[in-house]
């Protein structure tokens, strides 16, 4: 038991301890400043690029020397054709999506379509600003190939038929035509054109 109140004060820090603490703090700061910086991670784009290169190199290693030469010659020939056709460089490896779109475009069925054009745009020699609804046939006829078409194609490949201009596959053409079209030209002259627009389409 203690009588009265006593005040407890912290022990004074000795000079040696303060020097030790200051030296330790300075050494820690100097050591922290002297530590090497953490290595930066390479961008993911470069990582993906490296993985693609590894895949292509592994793919090329599976080819023989003759196959690699054929591949290079085919790529060079395709590049030369692209440059000669339009003067624009085309990608050597088109995307699969574009190939699927082109395939779908090639295999659309034969059907009737329409387009609003001016009479002058019809190419019939009339000068008029009047517009008409031009219906036309568009699509492929692969499903309508008959034995006649197959045999005709075989005769052409065997050079049994050489000089005649023939078509060894059915074509999407009008089976019937719409009503006659009448209009006034730029000189207020009245004209009527028959068999202008398609009414029904089919493979002929």
Automatic annotation (TrEMBL):
Keyword Methyltransferase in the entry? The reply is: no
**First-listed, main subcellular location of the protein, grouped into a coarse class:** secreted
Where is it found, in Gene Ontology cellular component terms?
A: extracellular region
Alphabetical keyword list: Disulfide bond, Growth factor, Secreted, Signal
User: Please, one GO biological process term?
Assistant: glial cell-derived neurotrophic factor receptor signaling pathway
Residues annotated as region Disordered?
Answer: 1-46
Instruction: Tell me which SUPFAM superfamilies the record gives.
Output: Cystine-knot cytokines
According to its UniProt record, where is this protein located? Secreted
Molecular function via GO: glial cell-derived neurotrophic factor receptor binding; growth factor activity; receptor tyrosine kinase binding
Composition bias type Low complexity, residue spans: 9-40
One Pfam family of this chain: TGF_beta
The keyword Secreted appears for this protein:
yes
Alphabetized InterPro entries for the sequence: Cystine-knot_cytokine, GDNF_fam, TGF-b_C
**TGF-beta family profile domain spans which residues?**
99-204
User: Subunit structure of this entry?
Assistant: Homodimer; disulfide-linked. Interacts with GFRA2 coreceptor and RET: forms a 2:2:2 ternary complex composed of NRTN ligand, GFRA2 and RET receptor. Also forms a 4:4:4 tetrameric complex composed of 4 copies of NRTN ligand, GFRA2 and RET receptor, which prevents endocytosis of RET.
Report the function annotation for this chain.
Growth factor that supports the survival of sympathetic neurons in culture. May regulate the development and maintenance of the CNS. Involved in the development of the neural crest. Might control the size of non-neuronal cell population such as haemopoietic cells. Acts by binding to its coreceptor, GFRA2, leading to autophosphorylation and activation of the RET receptor. Heparan sulfate-binding is required for signaling.
Spell out the family assignment given in the record's similarity comment. Answer: Belongs to the TGF-beta family. GDNF subfamily.
Tell me what this protein is called.
Neurturin
Question: What organism is listed for this UniProt entry?
Answer: Hypocryptadius cinnamomeus
């Amino acid at each position: 038991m203690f009588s009265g109140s006593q005040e407890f004060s912290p022990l004074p820090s000795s000079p040696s301890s303060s020097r030790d603490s200051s030296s330790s703090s300075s050494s820690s700061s100097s050591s922290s400043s002297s530590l090497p910086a953490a290595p930066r991670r390479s961008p993911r784009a470069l990582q993906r690029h490296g993985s693609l290169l590894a895949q292509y190199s592994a793919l090329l290693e599976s080819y023989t020397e003759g196959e690699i030469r054929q591949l290079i010659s085919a790529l060079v020939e395709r590049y030369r054709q692209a440059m000669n056709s339009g003067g624009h460089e085309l990608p050597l490896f088109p995307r699969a999506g574009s190939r699927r779109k082109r395939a779908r475009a090639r295999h659309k069925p034969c059907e009737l379509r329409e387009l609003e054009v001016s009479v002058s745009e019809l190419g019939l020699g009339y000068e008029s600003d009047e517009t008409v609804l031009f219906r036309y046939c568009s699509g492929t006829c692969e499903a309508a190939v008959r034995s006649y078409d197959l045999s005709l194609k075989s005769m052409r490949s065997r050079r049994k038929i050489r000089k005649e201009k023939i078509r060894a596959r059915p074509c999407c053409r009008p089976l019937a035509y719409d009503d006659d079209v009448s209009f006034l030209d730029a000189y207020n002259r009245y004209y009527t054109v028959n068999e202008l627009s398609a009414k029904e389409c089919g493979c002929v």
